[in-house]
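The records we work with from here on pair a chain with its fold. These numbers are not coordinates but entries in a learned vocabulary of local backbone shapes. To see the layout at work, look at the sequence and tokens printed below.

. . .
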Amino acid sequence: MKQQLISAVSQFFHDYTLNEMHMMNRYNPHSQLTYRSLLYLDLIYGRPGYYTASSLADALHISKPAVIMKVNELIKKGYIFRKQSTEDKRVYYLYVNQETLPEYTVYQEIGERVAENMCKKYSSQEIELFCRMLSDMDKTYAKEITSHAVDQNCSEI
């Protein structure tokens, strides 16, 4: 059973990454995005208005200058933008520019269709259990990766 779970999770990550790269090439074939840039975009898109360059550096456990350089690069290319906080004028939150990256709208539409399909196929209790399982996996992965980075004296992930 454990091996079946490992295999299913690995297959999901593989397919998700492959599909994401396919979508990026299909909708923006002339994009010069690196995979690292794509990961930054995914993080910012997944939590719009949550990250600043500084909080992104903290979340990624990498230097603030490295993140600021990548953020500035993505801003120059028009992929993301900063928006000033209404509470603290010194703080600027990051957002994906959906006009420049229309594939993120497609991701959202696909995500909604997948959720609709899952809700039709599974009971609310099964969906709730699945959501708890994903949350548990997320927390466990984060804990394991953090402890591995500490064990290996990794300064950047």
Q: What stands out?
A: The first helix runs from residue 2 to 27. The beta strands are 80-84, 92-96.
